[in-house]
Amino acid sequence: MLQDLDAILLARIQFAFTVSFHFFFPAFSIGLASYLAVLEGLWLKTGEQRYHDLFKYWLKIFAVTFAMGVVSGIVLSYQFGTNWAVFSDRAGPVIGPLMAYEVLTAFFLEAGFLGVMLFGMEKVGRKLHFAATCMVALGTFVSAFWILSVNSWMQTPTGFVMGANGQFLPGESWWDIVFNPSFPYRLVHTVIAAYLTTAFVVGGVGAWHLLKDRTNPHARTMFSMAMWMAAIVAPVQILAGDLHGLNTLEHQPAKIMAMEGHFESHPNGAPLILFGIPDSEEETVHYAVEIPKASSLILKHDPDAPLAGLDTIPKENRPPVEVVFWSFRVMVAIGLAMLGIGMWSLLARARRKLYDWRWLHRAALVMGPSGFAAVLAGWITTEVGRQPWTIYGLLRTADSASPLDAPAVATSLVAFVIVYFAVFGAGTWYILRLMSKSPMPGERGVKHGEKGPIRTSGITPGPTQNPGRRETIPDGEDEA
């Protein structure tokens, strides 16, 4: 049976599966690192214990999330060599240095200060510890910068020259590669999505504890901060998404055509198809519910502006319309729901009922994981909409894969599915368990081991490992 499967399709499924799992954790840790910096900054400025308690509460969750993000990301780099060796060979001179810079800057920055952030509050002083927290938050942003630069270059390749052996080589300026046409829009849109993802997780946790006790001061603080973020940032994200869409229309028109479901060109204004069932075989959208000329108004800011359709694109160069059409609508629907929650919270705040409206709390709880669904839907729209290319317009996916047999790819895919669900399922369950417990006054942070650090060489025991006597660690020393 495995012999009949398509090795390239299996390789695509494998990469999509592993990167989807990985994407969840950075999408959360980017926003959570910044949230921790805000909490610690507020604590230093105001001296209020509740901010310190919340910092320690979310620090434990961040530690687990960050670890799972690192582990899940390692696998992706190996797949470039195993399943996509041709792509790695041809695009390596461009994307290799960019990914190396991600390690040399972002990862080293995060790794250098993470230990201080997790365990150093009682060791280095408050201000230096706050600086370490800010460096970790900066590191998560820098990591997103380089990874999105690589992805954006694959979407809108610029600044390269073709080598004699068919390789993509850097041109005269690396800046043209790094700051390719779609990169600024994708960076802003993705980072804001990460902040909203974290905001709705924090808001969902706060709502959960408010539903159990609306007087809980920690839950009130979490919920209030999250709702401010939703109310302010969700409209900004919609604007950023609109600008990103206009940029995509300019550089990847086929992707926009698939997102809109425009199989036919519209010379006198294109309708906005809200819902329907796209059919690539018949090149139509069945049961379409549409607003006349609204698509031209959104994309061209002119209701009568002409818009080209997929009938202008050769069939072999069209993306899978059905997938892109629906993933885009899922992303937009969740974004509008986030905006609705934000506006609802403003109304509740204006009426001094933010902590009393139970239906608002229930809605926020339901919306807790919505950010993850939105970023996944957005990623599917971006990546599937680029097909059939790995480097848009220049290198096809079918020409990028390693010469592997289907059984080999299928075997590793099954192994990844089993291991990922077991390992990261357990990690997610542990995070949810941490969230289910309310922050407490004097919240305990990340704990040290009872016997000190593990020693890999030498025979000198740590202070508490001396068999002749046992020292007692003072209260607070086992806290972050």
UniProtKB/TrEMBL annotation:
Entry membrane topology: Multi-pass membrane protein
Annotated Polar residues bias: 457-467
Taxonomic superkingdom: Bacteria
Residue spans crossing the bilayer: 15-36, 57-78, 98-121, 128-148, 187-211, 223-240, 323-347, 359-380, 409-432
Main location: membrane
GO CC terms in record: cytochrome complex; plasma membrane
Coiled-coil portions: none
Keyword set, alphabetical order: Cell membrane, Electron transport, Heme, Iron, Membrane, Metal-binding, Transmembrane, Transmembrane helix, Transport
Keyword GTP-binding: no
Compositional bias of kind Basic and acidic residues: 444-453
One term of GO molecular function: oxidoreductase activity, acting on diphenols and related substances as donors, oxygen as acceptor
Gene Ontology biological-process annotations: aerobic electron transport chain
Region (Disordered), start-end ranges: 441-480
InterPro entries linked: Cyt-d_ubiquinol_oxidase_su_1
One Pfam family per UniProt: Cyt_bd_oxida_I
Record localization: Cell inner membrane; Cell membrane
PANTHER family: CYTOCHROME BD MENAQUINOL OXIDASE SUBUNIT I-RELATED (PTHR30365:SF14), CYTOCHROME D UBIQUINOL OXIDASE (PTHR30365)
Family label: Belongs to the cytochrome ubiquinol oxidase subunit 1 family.
Stated name of the protein: Cytochrome ubiquinol oxidase subunit I
